[in-house]
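Study both lines:
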Amino acid sequence: MLRRYDASHEDISDLLADQPAYRSRQVWDGLHRRLAEPSDMTDLPLALRERLADALPPALAPVTASRSDDGATVKWLWELHDGARVETVLMHYDDRSTVCVSTQAGCAMACSFCATGQSGFERHMTVGEIVEQVVRAQREAGERRVSNVVFMGMGEPLANYDATWAAVERLHGAMGLSARHLTLSTVGLVPGIRRLATEDLPVNLAVSLHLADDARRDDLVPINRRYPLAVLAEACEEYLRAKGRRLSFEWALIDGVNDTDRDARQLAAYALPLRAHVNLIPLNPTPGYAVRGSAPQQVRWFRDRLRELGVNATVRQNRGTDIDAACGQLRAGHEATPVASPRRR
């Protein structure tokens, strides 16, 4: 069965072949501009609303929703039609509202500190399953417009490239979100970065770096064995030349693993030639996983050290720790089993 946001404009036109041509435009705009349920499209006859609701069911069934930070952070666990479960996080800030979406059920990248990576890979998400997360988040946000979408939830977006990029185009074209407010994250899939450089929309690129030393990054982020840091830097430079957008490096600070002076110097040497901004992420604690985030004073010291070295670095606000807001944590719940800490060298 076709799910609601997997339906293309042509699919809706076919479904409404017995209706005047303008009806398909009404429905398309109702879904993507007004973000309406079929039952709420009162500009349509009741019988047609009922037909649409039956023919185009939603893809996301809520399992649980958690709220934190006085309602400023909301996290959902959804179940898809085949039983796979994925997560979405909505975060309100003073100047914007951002939704973090998943692109895969599980993840095959096996990063050693990540709850999603340790759960294994189930399947790619569809275009509609990705887009519907934004729709649901905007409904929750109400009058506060969701202006930013980050593809940083469960999964590796560039490993599900076709559906991820089609979702980007849908969010930009049908829903009217600025490409400059859409950010794709990757652990370093070089072919995907190079492909992204050829696309028309100037989205933001964020690379989950976490270490700037090949030998140690091989352990923490195994895809580094295939695409080492020098190769990754070449692809990032290619993207910068093509798009002129700011490159960001994500750096989850792990106690004693990547928060030392050596790590700061290695990161600075890597980031400065690429003019990259560094987002420092205090690692959310994950029950069952033998890693610990850096202490707050160490986070501040690391940020200040990077700035001394000439790097533009900020600390990302830690949101939703009490509701397991790091990707994969809500789904993992109490089923997580301990894994080894990253090796320290």
In short: Residues 4-55 form a domain with the DNA polymerase; domain 1 fold (CATH 1.10.150).
